[in-house]
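User: Please fill in residues for this 555-position structure.
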């Protein structure tokens, strides 16, 4: 990297727009969406999609709700051409969907493109040429008038060729490529000249696509560009202003959202942001951003897992685990404080699906997009008691006493520290069983029965194994637990105080089990919880006592 002063790069000049309105606007409705997955996204793949994969992707885009889908560059290759013909021959294009075809402003390519459109009901013919100073000088060696003439000649040819496909409704889209790096006045001049030739009206609007072909500046500057263009365009009411942002600076989503606030009507992008270099706009994120603000995006991502699976399979690309909404880990909390807040949020969230969504750290209900609650909280050494208690309750039905949360949390975190790995929900249950349920040394209960003698007295008989020897015990007390404690005095097990007792069912029906939670304090002041499970609630409580005693004895 160059040492200061940095002369190799220069800041992009700000736009002179003192009366800008976009900072005070909000997005109130969905734009016109156009997926460019099958063109812009496809050309960015190391292994482009074959025709069958393109067909599957096209069907998926239609199911999501896209009404405009760029299907490729049919004049560029036979594969692109035959894919569009396949869509037509198999009648795969719904009547309310427009297919978009991209073509450079070159005569033979435009003519070939129109050959591909035979039988298409609705089409957007998207022509473009580079307009920015660098490409004018380095690539084309052309002046502004020559660049403008390329655009107007192509427009005139498209207008002429519309007569060759009389059954097709053609809409023209023009892109001054690299709008982001073209003088605003010249971009406007070229677009005005194209509109003069096309002659748009209220029934035949022109799409003027203003691409951030390379993202060069902060999103606010992009918004200024879009608002300046909208305010100076002479046929604004007959024009659809379209955005096509790339993500070179990592702010393509923000630039698009601000561009919509600045007056744009339409958005081009791809699922999960696949595209050249750092990618295109991620339409999934922008659409779901709108949804979380109470706006109907007009796109259906209610089964986002399936959409992601199809995308990853046909593109051979992976969705990053931290990709908003769709990434594997976006509904995962490792932080203990986050886990605790999420658990409390879920416990207080209304079951009414129309009630406001208010769960900390989760801006959207994962269920709305087909995500699994199971993945919301995972456990590692940084996890807290709230997340572990959430797993035990949500996954397995154990509603542990609050004081027990920290105790189990310490056990799980110790295991996570020792292994250095994440602990799955199954792993959390295993820790619970190992620590509380399966602990049978030095004391184990083999048989137990009780009988009430009178209103204040219960007698119990128990067979236990203590230090590898079986013992028949008998005791009386004011209840089964008290009587069992008295029976243990025969084994010199005494001076333990019952601090708390709770129980609940682990299921429904006659064969459901019960779990009992017992907290004991020893003579040395130490406290431990125990847990017992059995179909008989009385025996579950005795197993809980034995569990707590073994844990206290073990220290």
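Assistant: Residues filled in for all 555 positions:
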């Amino acid at each position: 990297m160059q040492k200061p002063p940095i002369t190799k790069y220069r800041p992009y000049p700000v736009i002179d727009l003192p009366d800008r309105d976009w900072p005070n606007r909000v997005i109130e409705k969905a734009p016109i969406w156009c997926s460019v997955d099958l063109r812009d996204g496809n050309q960015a793949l190391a292994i482009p999609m074959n025709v069958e994969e393109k067909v599957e992707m096209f069907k998926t885009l239609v199911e999501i709700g896209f009404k405009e889908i760029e299907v490729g560059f049919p004049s560029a290759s036979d594969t692109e051409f035959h894919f569009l013909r396949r869509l037509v021959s198999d009648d795969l294009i719904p009547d309310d969907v427009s297919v978009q075809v991209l073509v450079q402003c070159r005569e033979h390519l435009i003519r070939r493109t129109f050959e591909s459109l035979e039988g298409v009901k609705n089409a957007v013919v998207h022509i473009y040429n580079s307009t920015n100073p660098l490409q004018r000088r380095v690539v084309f060696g052309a002046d502004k008038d020559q660049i403008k003439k390329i655009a107007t000649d192509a427009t005139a040819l498209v207008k002429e060729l519309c007569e060759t496909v009389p059954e097709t409704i053609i809409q023209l889209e023009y892109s001054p490529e690299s709008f982001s790096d073209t003088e605003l006045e010249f971009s406007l001049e070229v677009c005005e000249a194209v509109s003069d030739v096309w002659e748009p009206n209220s029934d035949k609007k022109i799409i003027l696509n203003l691409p951030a072909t390379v993202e060069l500046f902060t999103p606010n500057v992009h918004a200024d560009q879009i608002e300046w263009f909208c305010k100076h365009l002479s046929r604004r009411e007959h024009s659809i202003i379209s955005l096509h942002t790339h993500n070179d600076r990592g702010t393509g989503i923000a630039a698009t959202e601000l561009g919509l606030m600045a007056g744009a009507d339409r958005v081009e992008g791809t699922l999960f942001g696949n595209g050249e270099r750092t990618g295109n706009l991620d339409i999934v994120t922008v659409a779901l951003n709108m949804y979380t603000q109470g706006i109907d995006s007009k796109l259906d991502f209610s089964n986002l897992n399936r959409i992601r699976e199809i995308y990853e399979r046909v593109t051979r690309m992976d969705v990053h685990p931290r990709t908003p909404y769709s990434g594997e880990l976006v509904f995962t909390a490792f932080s203990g404080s986050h886990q605790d807040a999420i658990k409390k949020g879920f416990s207080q969230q209304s079951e009414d699906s129309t009630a406001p969504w208010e769960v900390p750290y989760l801006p959207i209900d994962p269920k709305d997009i087909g995500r699994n609650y199971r993945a919301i909280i995972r456990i590692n050494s940084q996890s807290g008691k709230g997340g572990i208690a959430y797993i035990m309750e949500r996954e397995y039905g154990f509603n542990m006493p609050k004081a027990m949360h920290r105790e189990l949390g310490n056990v799980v975190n110790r295991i996570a520290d020792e292994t250095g790995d994440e602990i799955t929900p199954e792993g959390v249950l295993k820790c619970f069983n190992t620590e509380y349920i399966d602990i049978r040394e030095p004391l184990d209960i083999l048989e137990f029965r009780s009988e009430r003698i009178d209103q204040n007295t219960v007698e119990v008989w128990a067979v236990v194994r203590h230090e590898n020897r079986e013992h028949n015990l008998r005791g009386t007390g004011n209840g089964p637990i008290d009587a069992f404690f008295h029976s243990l005095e025969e084994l010199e097990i005494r001076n333990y105080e019952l601090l708390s007792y709770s129980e609940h069912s682990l299921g429904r029906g006659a064969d459901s089990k019960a779990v009992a939670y017992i907290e004991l304090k020893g003579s040395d002041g130490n406290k431990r919880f125990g847990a017992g499970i059995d179909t008989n609630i009385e025996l579950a409580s005795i197993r809980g006592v034995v569990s707590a005693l073994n844990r206290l004895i073990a220290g």
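For context: Residues 517 and 531 are 5 Å apart (CA to CA).
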